[in-house]
Amino acid sequence: MVMPIASAPDGPVEVPDAVRTRVHAPRAVWRNMVGGLTFHDAAGARYLKWNPAGSGASLSAERDRLTWAIRFHPVPEVLEYASDGAGELLVTRELPGSGAVTPRWLGEPRTAVRAIGEGLRALHEHLPAAECPFDWSVAARTAGHELPALGDPPPIDELVVCQGDPCAPNTIIGADGRWTGHVDLAALGLADRWADLAVASMSLGWNYGDSWEPEFFVAYGIAPDPERIAYYRALWDAT
Questions:
Q1: Is residue 212 a part of any domain in this protein?
Q2: Any idea where the Aminoglycoside phosphotransferase domain is (predicted)?
């Protein structure tokens, strides 16, 4: 099983020029495995996400998905996108609440897990699959890649607009313990809902311990499907 591909920065962080010129006192809150950084601008109630050139991660793809999704579901509003030889910058408005792995919610895992399950169900119901221009299918994710043999994918249970990175930190929770929105939608697209469900449930163990999957599936309103869970977790690990 792979571990999360991003975490809070540990130690000093060099602030990219694109961020430094826009924020007086940025606070680094997240670092991904391709060298990307996310900064919080408390004074402006916004986040600045920066990826270095050549990282292979596309902030323009996230910009496009946020711009589409915000018409149907609470996601960050895009305030600015910029690109130069050093990298890409995406500036978004802060959602109300805090991420599901902030200290409060790590201390209240039952509340957090229920918010994650209920929030993912709402995202799947709010975003209209018939209108979605983005693809996160098995074929799209594996095209052009040399991957381990995964076998044929199971038949699609329900085609929805998937979050694409449904790990626990990407659900935002309000002070009342209910979900308020979702962040990090660079991979959002059409897929079987189990592509999200398998990964969201797997991520709970990284943050809250190994006993919370049943609570998650109850909150979402579905019984676990071991075959689909196994396949989509293997696909996540492989890609």
A1: yes
A2: 44-231
pLDDT in tens, the chain (239 residues): 333 445 677 667 889 999 999 998 899 998 887 789 999 999 999 999 999 988 877 899 999 999 999 999 999 999 999 999 899 999 999 999 999 999 999 999 999 999 999 999 999 999 999 999 999 999 999 998 888 889 999 999 999 999 999 999 999 999 999 999 999 999 999 999 999 999 999 999 999 999 999 999 999 999 999 999 999 999 999 98
- Give yes or no: residues 76 and 190 share one domain: no
Give the Cα separation of 79 and 70 in Å (integer): 13
64, 165, 184, 196: the active-site residue: 165
Please report, for residues 116, 139, 158, 198, 237, the alpha-carbon distance to residue 152 in angstroms, rounded to integers and kept in the order given. Answer: 29, 11, 17, 17, 16
3-state secondary structure at position 202: helix
CB 135 within 8 A of CB 238: no
Which range marks the domain in which residue 15 is found?
Answer: 6-93
Q: Is 210 a catalytic residue?
A: no
Residue 238 tokens read as 């492989």
Is residue 235 within 8 Å of 136, Cβ to Cβ? no
Cα dihedral 58, 63, 66, 68, rounded to 10, equals -110
Q: Could you tell me if residue 1 is inside a domain?
A: no
Q: What is the DSSP-derived secondary structure letter of residue 100?
A: T
Say which CATH number the domain at 53 has.
3.30.200.20
- Same domain for 63 and 107, yes or no, is no
Q: What's the whole-model pTM score?
A: 0.92
- Residue finishing a domain among 59, 75, 93: 93
From CA 64, how far away is CA 58, in angstroms rounded? 10
